[in-house]
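PROTEIN SPECIFICATION:
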Amino acid sequence: MNIIKRIFVGAVLLLCGAGVLEAQEGNVLRLSFDEALRYAVDHNLSLRNAALDVRKAEAARWEAVSTMLPQVKAGFDYSNMCGYEMNFGNMSIPMNPYGTFGLTASIALTAQQVVGVVMNKVSKEMSDISYRQSLQQTHANVKNVYVSILVMEDVVSLLDSSLANMEQLERSTLESVKVGASEQIAADKLSVQVASMRNSIQANRRSLQMLYHTLILQLGAEVDSRLELTTRLDEVMDMDRLQQLVREDFNIADNYNYQLLEQGERLSKDQLLLTWMGFLPTLSAYYQYSDKTYFGKSEGMNMTPPHMLGFSISIPLWQSGTRAAKIREAKISHEQNLNSRKQAEDALRVQYSQLCYDLLSAMDSYQIQKENLDVTKRVFDNITEKFTYGHASNLEVTNASTDIITAQSNYIQAVMSVLNAQVALENLLGK
């Protein structure tokens, strides 16, 4: 019986363990670069809020439209005078309980309401543009962090390889010191270089871990998720595609900031029209139906007409110059928006030329630093091999290890310069 019980408990524990492993495996996100962008579109919370802003603007537009539609309300009133009778000499009239059902349909229409609906449509279009701008920024953020992780992993791998060589040199030097073939000072210098390289690797690993956390936040994934990036750095840093990007024509109408300025100009123009509409009359009409019912033995006196129709027009005449002042204010605001759009148009064209130049310069620097990193690595390997056979000095090894750390730092900076220039140009082009 004990054996059966143990087998049962073991099976339960095994199933539980398998469940935990499956849950952990389910928390792993293996994402290519394009998959990461799509995942962020579906899960990024800031982007979801931007989408909700579009829906909110659409609801506000329909709210404005509904104010121009007929408004219908119904009601029922009950009155009981508790047996009271009206006396007219020898004649008395009982005041029986009664109920009144009423139905009222009304509509009021102004020119300002019509313009207000148009303005709400413009606001909705601005929300659409803001959403696309948020989508663009989300893509840029994900791309920035994704590439940063890839370049940092490459650098850490490179430094790990260099550290292995340095540690081998350190061990061989210590053995040489023991047999009197080398001085202790040489081993000490190597130990300092090994410690320095280890510190650099640890700093890069901590930065890498922070970048993974940042990417999880940008993606909108669960905070305990583990990411595995499947796209290589050279696939993202496609120089041919970047060259095509620089050669693309700049259509300023595709720029989201410019589109928002255009919509703002339309909004200020509509605001001016809305102020002018304040001089036009207000039209209103209503229809009312009433049904009065007495609950006593005899009918009371009913003076309520069952049907009633009404129409009115209201014309504004004088507001002590308030409306004229608002019109002047709206004209000035519209003129300011025109100036801002023209200024932004000129600035964007200048910025396009500058960003193309920045991207080309960054690409040149990237190619140089990539080659420099490769050369520095080969020089380091050569120096360490010579040092092993006594053909290189300790100073040469120290300088080579320092050079490789400097080269990796310059390489990271070059990659990020290309990335930043590319993202800035794509944002300007409305990509």
